[in-house]
Amino acid sequence: MIDFDYWAPTYIAFGRDKESRTGELVRRFGGSRALLHYGGGSAVRSGLIGRVEASLVEAGVEFVELGGVKPNPRSSLVEEGVRLALAEKVDFMLAVGGGSVIDSAKAIAIGAANGGEWRKFYVGREVKVRPTIPAALPVGVVLTIAAAGSEGSTNSIINLEPGNLKRGAGGDVLRPRFAVMNPELTMSLPPFQTACGMADMFAHLCERYFTPTVDVTLSDNLCEAVMRTIVEESAKVMADPSDYQARANIMWAGTLAHNDVCGVGRVQDWASHGIEHELSALYDCAHGAGLAVVMPAWMTYVYKTDPARFARFARNVFGVGRGEDDGAAALAGIAAFRAWLKSLGLPLTFAELGAKEEDIPLMVRTLNLGGNTLGGFRPLAEDDVTAIFRLCLG
Amino acid sequence: MIDFDYWAPTYIAFGRDKESRTGELVRRFGGSRALLHYGGGSAVRSGLIGRVEASLVEAGVEFVELGGVKPNPRSSLVEEGVRLALAEKVDFMLAVGGGSVIDSAKAIAIGAANGGEWRKFYVGREVKVRPTIPAALPVGVVLTIAAAGSEGSTNSIINLEPGNLKRGAGGDVLRPRFAVMNPELTMSLPPFQTACGMADMFAHLCERYFTPTVDVTLSDNLCEAVMRTIVEESAKVMADPSDYQARANIMWAGTLAHNDVCGVGRVQDWASHGIEHELSALYDCAHGAGLAVVMPAWMTYVYKTDPARFARFARNVFGVGRGEDDGAAALAGIAAFRAWLKSLGLPLTFAELGAKEEDIPLMVRTLNLGGNTLGGFRPLAEDDVTAIFRLCLG
Questions:
Q1: CA-CA distances (angstroms) from residue A158 to A71, A103, A113, B68?
Q2: Cβ contact, residue pair B226, A224, below 8 Å
Q3: Cα gap B107→B119, rounded to integer Å
Q4: Whole-angstrom Cα distance, residue B86 to residue B82?
Q5: Which pLDDT belongs to residue B163?
Q6: Which of 1.20.1090.10, 1.20.1600.10, 1.10.10.60, 3.20.20.370 would CATH assign to domain A190-391?
Q7: Segment A22-68, tens digit of pLDDT
Q8: pLDDT of residue A125
Q9: Which of the residues A286, A300, B9, B324 could staple to A9 if both were Cys, CB 3.0 to 4.6 A apart?
């Protein structure tokens, strides 16, 4: 175990109807005038935005609104949000939605607290030391999609226009002050989006689990516990989208997969996320769908670096490969992972995702590694990334 | 899963030499004049108190000191601490020690923020709704014993004199703002104290794991992951007390066992803790040693309430009882638990603990159940508690 700092102060209000507490929670964490930020029409049509507004009114919180966040959230809307936040002198960012809405809200929170400046904090792989974000408005969340874990994380990813460069910012000031989590709000998600969310949270655990750090028994066991939970509950939630208990387990798993309780004390990887962001930036595909294509290819490419770790993954998460040698078990685990993704209806190849072989050089270039490498488990150079993309061809 | 609120905002600084950051962390969390609270001479003799003092001086934090906290911390020292904190106008409580020191610091933090009033917030089993603590000084911790989890919890237990009544207070205001956790500081603990600590943290997980709540896959898996880690690492740490990595895994396990990440969304039990507190109050034994006696007896008494849950415990934590029916597996699990405690050198019976059969009626009376019951898994009346004490006779 390596030294670590851990700080996950997000207040979680979990359960049915908890969105009625939104106003109280905004007040509790210092907000009196909020920018209510959300995505498409479904949150309005479902009545959720209305219930949140009513809760704000009841708590005496003033607010302005900005909807229209798209998946892979765009910098143009962030710019609009920053202008609005500054003009309206809001003191709180309230995100009602999934990871894209939350990440967009975090970007606006930075801009509003730094005189409009936010874009310079979003950087790519070419930067080894991220710029420190001096301040951000407090952010609160009403979560509607179990996936990204942004409700409990310090990170934000934005599609910078022009060019759709996916770039990230990070810092303690971005950690949401509260997250309202009502599993019922996720019941109306289409099956494909539910599946993408589970692939995303599972990937967040893989990025932490596959590590060169030794003697991390506790976080190894925690990662496996949450991964097993996602696999076990995924079958229930796909069979019955309104299974409250399965939705609840999945939703809480998404937060714990990414608030770093499963990741502290170990070198993490994050190569698959870096590679996938090129896919969703170029094709505007769902991040979870891109991960379903990239992660098994990454595993196939790197498992020989530490077959014992992949064998452990096979045996402890998918219950396969027992009695086999580590190399065979590792391959059995990767196959089981692929089979699980397929059972969720997710794509496994470029063709199924709608990606094109001829774009591989462009994506490798845009990843902008420079002379750096990608990933903590096995550092990857540009040639390695090309090889992993080629494994995605199927 | 039942509805829950979860808030664990303690900042953790984990690793070698992290005590050198104490002053910086006191400053970060609002302290400028601290009461440095600790136990016996070992923290002074080892040089730890000196290093903490140097860190405070370097950060420009003024401080006064009060040592002398004993295990099962006494109300008389709390009274002295409250007087000192008020007279010296401290704005921060800094605990350097284990659970007893932290709990004593929390009590002083209440008194100092409420005009000297603290005792009325410490109540027993006769009270169904605990009084709300309106305020407390912020508390920071430099942890020296991996056991109680008080560094990340909302609770405090004090021995109220006269009569040595163990009573508890709880509330968000008691959650420490930061915890410095250097596994090296635990290496000099005697083996018996190390073992008591592991029994205590394991018991914290059992109190959460044994629940009537269904559909809690995630927290079931998390509890089992942390319990397995404690068992696995316990052998290493008993074999080599200076095994840094084993100490690190155990230390972090102690925090996660009790900051409620493994317990939210489920009815918890806490009967064994309630019963044990009567033992440590009467005999001044180590809390973990008392738990080693009480927990297996409690398990033996209640397992028939839900043999499947105890069978799961047997199979997933101790790897026994596979292929057996649930009743047989449950008993195999309890036997394996007992064998593990014995392997740590812990007592399993009243005789080994130094407790006396004739004191059972007194302890049951002092538990002060009134007409209430004890425990969320299987509610226990006074007769049940008597029966469990009798099972402790061996």
A1: 10, 7, 18, 54
A2: no
A3: 8
A4: 6
A5: 84
A6: 1.20.1090.10
A7: 999 999 999 999 999 999 888 999 999 999 999 999 999 999 999 99
A8: 73
A9: B9
Q: Is B204 helix (H, G, I), strand (E, B) or coil?
A: helix
| Position A12 confidence tier, pLDDT thresholds 50, 70, 90 | very high
**Two structure tokens written together for B64:** 């006064």
Q: What angle do CA B93, B95, B101 make, to 5 degrees?
A: 120
Of A7, A221, A252, the CB nearest to B218: A252
**Gyration radius of chain A's alpha carbons:** 20
Q: Has residue B161 got a pLDDT over 90? A: yes
* Distance of alpha carbon B107 from alpha carbon B74, whole angstroms: 10
Which fold is adopted by the domain B11-185?
Rossmann fold (3.40.50)
Whether B252 sits inside 8 A of A217 (CB atoms) is no
A228 closest CB neighbour out of B2, B10, B221: B221
Beta strands in chain B (DSSP E): 4-14, 33-38, 62-66, 92-97, 139-143, 155-160, 165-170, 178-181
Residue type, A247: R
Determine, for residues A249 and B7 on separate chains, whether the beta-carbon distance falls below 8 Å.
Answer: no
On whether the CB atoms of residues A288 and A200 are closer than 8 A, the answer is yes
Q: How many CA atoms, within 13 angstroms, populate the side-chain half-sphere of residue B184? A: 10
- Is residue B311 scored above 90 in pLDDT? yes
Cβ-Cβ contacts under 8 Å, B213 against chain A? none
Q: How far apart are CA A163 and CA A171, in angstroms?
A: 25
Q: Could you write out the three-class secondary structure of A7-19?
A: EEEEEEEECCCHH
Query: How sure is the predictor about B97, in pLDDT bands with cuts at 50, 70 and 90?
Result: very high
Candidate from A8, A221, A246 with C-beta closest to B228: A221
Best mutation site among B249, B266, B312 for testing chain A: the one with the most A CBs within 10 Å? B249
- The tokens describing A205, both together, are 């655990």
Size of interface A-B (CB pairs under 8 A): 121
What does the mean pLDDT of chain A come to?
Answer: 96
What pLDDT, in 10s, does the model give residues A158-181?
Answer: 999 998 888 999 999 999 999 999
What torsion, rounded to 10 degrees, do the Cα atoms A270, A70, A144, B11 define? 40
Kindly tell me if the per-residue pLDDT of B98 is higher than 90.
yes
Mutate one of B172, B182, B218, B322 to test the A interface: name it (highest A CB count within 10 A): B218
Distance CA B367, CA B127 (A): 12
Domain ranges of chain A: 11-185, 190-391
Instruction: Please list the alpha-helical segments (H only) found in B59-171.
Output: 75-88, 99-113
Q: Which residue of B has its CA nearest to A256?
A: B261
Residue A116: CB atoms within 10 A of its CB come to 14
**pLDDT at B373 exceeding the cut of 80:** yes
Q: What is the DSSP letter of B189?
A: S
State whether residue A297 is helix, strand or coil.
helix
Is A215 in Cβ contact with B249 (below 8 Å)? yes
**Residue corresponding to tokens 């009346």:** B381
- Categorize the per-residue pLDDT at A129 as very low, low, confident or very high, splitting at 50, 70 and 90: confident
A375 and A274 Cβ atoms separated by less than 8 Å: yes
Nearest CB partner across the interface for A249, out of B18, B218, B249: B218
Q: Chain B closest CA to A80's CA: distance in Å?
A: 33
Q: Which residue of A has its CA nearest to B3?
A: A15
DSSP-assigned beta bridge partners for residue A12: A179, B6
Residue of B15, B222, B228 with shortest CB distance to A3? B15
